[in-house]
């Protein structure tokens, strides 16, 4: 079996959940004979290695830099690949993963399979199913080993781990820095806390314009719910950023998630797939949101929204 | 400063995508400008307006002239069509050497393009192009401030985390979203661009890179949840939803 290197993404020294999930996935994939290495690039916080017990070996790349730069992590990961020659490198398809997975594949001259939702190892090959076209299609792909896979969040689940494996300290990578962190921020936490609400009405681009958003707001008010939105609706400036759900927004787990005019792209589903009850309204019968929803209707949101608002106002009055 | 914006047309995933023998039927595929490239163009034009720059829109010949004409109508100074026979389904890895050579020939200080395209199974164009050029890459960008010598790129990391990163040019930036929505182009402005914009042709010597991975087949996703479809008529659907709300205590009986 091939040895697997897992790139561990850190936030203030803590491995992200997606990285821990991936580490457990690597353990299963490697079987009993393959060795799993977790590689984390240190910054100015101490790395919590206790959580990395699924790895046989933990490589900590030295550094005390403030914040993440792609070029430093790219150099560290490339050096590790060239030194350790793993059969497979797994990277979580987070923002950082999106930033470095392709770059590292190009740097070390290996194939990359991106947006993987399933992985299987052959003798000398890696096979994967990749989620593309906003989740509307899946591609079965394969490549020869050694290879790199960028794996979507939620594909694997972290399991109980034994104690931490051997820890190896690696030297800081050698590279000429052309980027420098000027400042970092972790707060979009002004405004409403949508994670605290049990009932959410989510508007997607299918509502058309700000008038459509206003109709959804009326429905949210009638239901006693908070209004939330997909990224394009926020990028349009129709709804504030603190109400965005998904990869670059918030992760929510309400009792009810009523999605109107939302296609259900993987980056959106990442933020709401665990809602208790998902109801989707979308004219496209093939929209991926219907794969995550419990109930769905293919009617036009602009007809649907005022009707439901009116009905609820009547029901509640 | 020269900002080269790479624009790609891609199958529109909001429309029906037809498969033929396990691959996309490109003859039937409705094509549109990759939405992240649309934001990249807007960010480049914003940077030009704020700090002064020449914005050069670059597209493969197969993207068609309209994409480049629209870019000019939206503020690009030059429009360049890359002349090379490229299969419609060529991956980002394959076309990156062409884009890199074009960027060099156009004297790019900064190359901007979308952070991803919807069919990027084997990786994205911005990092492959950066690797070809041996320039630094900044992905997930939500703003580029070119007013200083070393531009400052706002990079997003999800979960509300972000950073301001300064970069020594030349560099490649993968844009997630522009600081403001891509500007609307009126029909008259577009007609004007169609009549007046001259589209330059650029030949490159670089060859398409080999694809190290193989697409076996494309298919619809396997369903993971069993959805119950309600009626397509909104009046009936609304009645059904209110009933579901009642059963679950969401309305009429207090929230559960
Ligand atoms: C790194 C990265 C991070 C991202 N982070 C996020 C994130 O945090 N959150 C997020 O949401 N997205 C995120 N995205 C964007 C994501 O890929 C999708 O582009 C986005 O989720 C699509 O939003 P949408 O569903 O509103 O729009 P679309 O995909 O355009 O869907 C609109 C839907 O409305 C339907 N529709 C149209 N008209 C009607 C009508 N009259 N009635 C009913 N239905 C109608 C259409 O059939 C379509 O399915 C991210 C992307 C990247 C690359």
Task: Note the topology.
The complex is a heterodimer of chains A (317) and B (256).
Chain A (H helix, E strand, L loop, with lengths): L3 E5 L1 E2 L2 E2 L1 H14 L5 E6 L15 E5 L8 H15 L3 E5 L2 H14 L3 E10 L3 E8 L4 E8 L2 E5 L14 E5 L8 E7 L13 E5 L6 H14 L2 E4 L1 H5 L20 E5 L5 H4 L7 E5 L7 H4 L2 E3 L3 H16 L1
Parallel strand pairs in A: 1-4, 1-6, 4-5, 5-11, 6-10, 7-10, 13-14, 13-15, 15-16, 16-17
Antiparallel strand pairs in A: 2-3, 7-8, 8-9
Helix pairs in contact in A: 2-3, 4-8
Chain B lengths: L1 E6 L1 E3 L7 E2 L2 E2 L6 E3 L1 H17 L2 E7 L4 H9 L4 E6 L8 H14 L4 E5 L10 H9 L3 E9 L6 E7 L2 E7 L3 E5 L11 H10 L2 E5 L9 E7 L8 E2 L4 H14 L9
Parallel strand pairs in B: 1-6, 1-8, 6-7, 7-13, 8-12, 9-12
Antiparallel strand pairs in B: 2-5, 3-4, 9-10, 10-11
Describe the protein in words:
The complex is a heterodimer of chains A (317) and B (256). By secondary structure, chain A is α/β, with parallel strands linked by helices. Chain A folds into two domains: 4-170, HUPs (Rossmann fold), CATH 3.40.50.620; 194-316, Rossmann fold, CATH 3.40.50. Chain A has helices spanning 17-30, 70-84, 95-108, 210-223, 231-235, 266-269, 289-292, 301-316, and strands at 4-8, 10-11, 14-15, 36-41, 57-61, 88-92, 112-121, 125-132, 137-144, 147-151, 166-170, 179-185, 199-203, 226-229, 256-260, 277-281, 295-297. In chain A, strands 9-8-7-10-6-1-4-5-11 form a nine-stranded mixed β-sheet, with helices on both faces. A five-stranded parallel β-sheet of chain A has the order 14-13-15-16-17. In chain A, a hairpin with a 3-residue loop joins strand 7 and strand 8 (125-132). Chain A is elongated, with a radius of gyration of 22 Å. The relative contact order of chain A is 0.12. The mean pLDDT of chain A is 94. Chain B is of the alpha/beta class and 256 residues long. Chain B has two domains: 2-203, Rossmann fold, CATH 3.40.50; 221-256, no CATH class. In chain B, 29% of the residues lie in helices and 30% in strands. Chain B contains six helices and 15 strands. In chain B, the strands form three sheets. Chain B has a nine-stranded mixed β-sheet with strand order 11-10-9-12-8-1-6-7-13, sandwiched between helices. Chain B has a two-stranded antiparallel sheet with strand order 2-5. In chain B, helix 3 (92-105) crosses helix 4. Chain B is globular and about 65 Å long. The termini of chain B are far apart. The chains are: A alpha/beta (317), B alpha/beta (256). The interface between A and B is large, with 93 and 92 residues. Strand 9 of chain A pairs antiparallel with strand 14 (213-219) of chain B. Flavin-adenine dinucleotide sits between chains A (95, 98, 134, 204-206, 230-233, 244-249, 261-263, 265, 267-268, 271, 281-284, 287, 300-302) and B (14, 115-116, 176).
